[in-house]
Amino acid sequence: VLDVLQEDKKTIVRHLNKEIQKRTKRTVTAAFYDVTTYSFESRSVSEYKDFGLSKDHKVNEVQVVLGLVMDENGIPIDYELFAGNTSEFETMVPLIKKIKNTYHLKQLIVVADRGLNCAENLFALKEIGCDFVIAQKFKNSAAEIKAQILDPDNWEEFICKDDGERENLN
Predict the structure, then answer these.
(1) What percent of the chain has pLDDT over 70?
(2) 120: in domain
């Protein structure tokens, strides 16, 4: 079934997003991104199914990696299937870039957990014009990083308007 759905994915997602837009007047200013793995009771490798780092610690089964982007209301915008041996670090930027281009978004704030927090992803998000809120483990951070985080001069307060433009509060 995954193969059939993947063949028509672009059409299905486009149709669903048009219908969601009609009913909710969706404006996408934030993209909530997460990635997970789905394993199969199989050892048969194919285009997407492959052995990889399983979140369920299933080392003897093939899996696929699924990246999912949701809007501010928790409604999916798009997803991407990746081969089961793909590192989750490599999944976020291509899908966010695709969302930003497909919907012609000037500004997009990406929200993700710390599992996707690496310098390469953060620089890539900035390069494609995205802001981000990505978790970082504070307890294990270096003292100078903790000081930067806690310094109020490093914070910027703003409101994101419906058109995606910022209104500074300072």
Answers:
(1) 99
(2) yes
